[in-house]
Amino acid sequence: MAHAHARPNTPVKPPKIDELRRFTNAERWVHRTTSTLMMSAILTALFLYVPGFAELVGRRRLLVVVHEWSGIMLPLPLVAGLFFRGVRLDMGRLDRFGPQDKGWVWRAMRYGTGQAGPAGKFNAGQKLYSALIAGLVLVMLGTGLMMWFTALSPLNLRTGASYIHDWLALIIGVLVIGHIRMALKDPESRHGMRTGWVTRTWARREHPLWEQEFPKEKRSKES
Q: What CATH number labels 19-211?
């Protein structure tokens, strides 16, 4: 009788020695899912409110349904992500502004992010962006529900909610475009969100205070 040989485990390709773990799998999943829902809401809103785009699709009811459910589901990825330690830790980082963040945004606008001063894992611009988007999404969710459930909201409240919803949608669109523009200018940052890893050189240049958290003689083990 032949002896069965145990199949060896397939080795996982280790990161390069100069790479640091920036995002966990859970964080990348939250970002991708949230960005997909956000873009669905923005694009359907564009096709609903701009007549030229609306004529290209024609199926207005379908656009309304996709827009409504994209907005309703937008907070869910983050809520699910809170069950993971990496997501909670980075939420804490995003919620705290330190002394190094004072004046960082203005210096970045004038000299560029590389010369705006030291930053931790997230710079002041990223912290400000996340705070604004979180607050705006909550208001958009509330006003959207008021317009959706018409039987529960008087006409004057629905009118006000519609006005606020439309203007905040424009602000969110501008913020998201700015976020995408910044990402396109930084391939290393996109690589970090796509794979979870960044080079130490990039971290030292863009987020030096965070890079200092990793011993130089050891490969990052953060999960």
A: 1.20.950.20
Q: Which of the 8 DSSP states describes residue 198?
A: E
Q: Which two tokens stand for residue 15?
A: 């990161």
Rounded to 5 degrees, what are φ and ψ at 19?
-100, 145
Residues 216-223: contacts with CB under 8 Å, at least 24 apart:
219/14, 219/15, 219/17, 219/19, 220/15, 220/19, 220/20, 220/21, 221/21, 222/20, 222/21, 222/24, 223/21, 223/24, 223/86
Task: Convert the pLDDT of each residue in 115-167 to its tens digit.
Answer: 888 899 999 999 999 999 999 999 999 999 888 887 777 888 888 889 999 99
Alpha helices per DSSP H over 149-199: 155-184, 187-195
Domain ranges of the chain: 19-211
Q: Could you say which DSSP state residue 15 is in? A: P
Give the start-end residues of each E strand in the chain. 19-21, 197-199
Compute the distance between CA of residue 98 and CA of residue 89 in angstroms, rounded to an integer.
Answer: 16
pTM of the prediction? 0.81
- Gap between the Cα atoms of 119 and 113, Å rounded: 9
